[in-house]
Amino acid sequence: MSKKQSDKKVITVRLTEEEKQKLEYCSNLCGLSQSEFIRQLCKGKAPKPQPQKEFWELLNDLYDVHNSFQNCVKYEPSALEICKEIEKKGISEEIQRKTGLRLSPYFPAAKLAWIFRHVDGALEKALRGEICIGTMDSWLIYKLTGGKRHQTDYSNASRTQLFNINTLRWDEELLSNFSIDKSCLPSVTDSDGDFGKTDFEGWLDKSIPIRGVMGDSHGAFFGQGCLKSEMIKATYGTGSSVMMNIGGRPIFSDKGIVTSQAWKIAGKVDYVLEENINYTG
What we know:
This protein is an alpha+beta fold. It contains 12 helices and 10 strands.
């Protein structure tokens, strides 16, 4: 593979059926294939069809959808630049030793750093305690509990590149390197811990406890019964996750394999080695 080919970025965007129809309409109107239309959109090059109000309304919808295109256009390239800045400090290996993750814009830390650096008022609001940041599960818990809880579990926290998987805490040095205020982050709870209660915004007559939270591949790992050291699973979807239980102590790979926490259940931590294949489905 040539260097030019290996430097290409692969961006995956998941759309609903309605959004796929909008994408097909917009790309046809521009006389472009859907893949070329997305490439131009992510580069910030506005397509130039014959002026039609309906087209521009649909195009705006595409920009808003799931924040997928916004993430492609706004955050990924700049997050990469932030990673390059940090790499120049010579702390990439230290970051991997603390988090088990290679320094990469794929993980949330660099994206969050970009937001606080470039979004007007974001940092000031964070310092005033007006912003919460976290992973999808922490947002769901916040919504399910009516804003009473802002929590995540160890499996999700370990994938942010801000969590020290050795000390089991948000790492002050990592937060400083990425210029992120700790007060914005969710508290970290055992995967089978207390995440509050929910009545699904009134859909239930009585609130029920939320007592189980895990990352997606970690949840699949648990569901496959890989509860003991050296047990391995491979799950398939759009991509594939190959994960191995390595027990109660982290093992760090020099071959590019990620180390993270499988979970913390009943006070006991298990770690995993994981590698992902982008396209298998």
